[in-house]
C-alpha cells in the first residue's frame, strides 16, 4: 500500500501487507479514519484486516502489526469461528468502511456478510 502526498504526488510511505492464509497477501482497499489517526487496510487474499497509524502533521506512518485481525482464524465474541462453512465461508475483507467517530469498522466479506470491529483496539 502506497501513501502519497496528493498535491505533489510524492510517495510518503509504502507498506506490504502481512502474509495470511497460505502466505497470500493483497491490499485490496484502504480507508482513512475520519479523525486522521489511522488507515484500515483490507488484505483481501491474506484474509486479514490491518491498521496503519498515521500522523499527517509529521508524515509519519506506522504499520501496527499487533492490531492485525486474521479473519480466517479469529473467534467471534460469542465463541464461534469467524470463518465458518455455511455461515461465513470466505472471510476475505473487501471494504473496511469507518464510521464518523473513527471507532467502528464495517468490513464487508467476499463470501457475503459483514463484520463490525472496534478499529481502535488491538485484538
Amino acid at each position: 500500500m502506497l501513501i502519497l502526498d496528493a498535491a505533489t504526488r510524492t510517495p510518503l510511505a509504502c507498506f506490504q501487507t502481512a502474509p495470511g492464509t497460505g502466505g497470500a497477501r493483497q491490499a485490496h482497499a484502504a480507508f482513512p479514519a475520519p479523525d486522521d489517526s489511522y488507515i484500515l487496510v483490507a488484505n483481501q487474499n491474506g484474509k486479514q484486516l490491518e491498521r496503519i497509524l498515521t500522523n499527517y502533521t509529521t508524515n509519519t506512518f506506522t504499520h501496527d502489526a499487533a492490531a492485525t485481525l486474521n479473519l480466517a482464524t479469529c473467534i467471534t465474541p460469542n465463541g464461534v469461528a469467524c470463518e465458518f462453512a455455511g455461515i461465513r465461508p470466505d472471510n476475505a475483507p473487501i471494504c473496511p468502511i469507518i464510521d464518523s467517530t473513527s471507532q467502528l469498522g464495517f468490513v464487508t466479506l467476499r463470501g457475503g456478510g459483514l463484520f463490525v470491529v472496534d478499529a481502535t483496539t488491538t485484538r
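Residues 3 and 13 are 5 Å apart (CA to CA). The radius of gyration is 14 Å.
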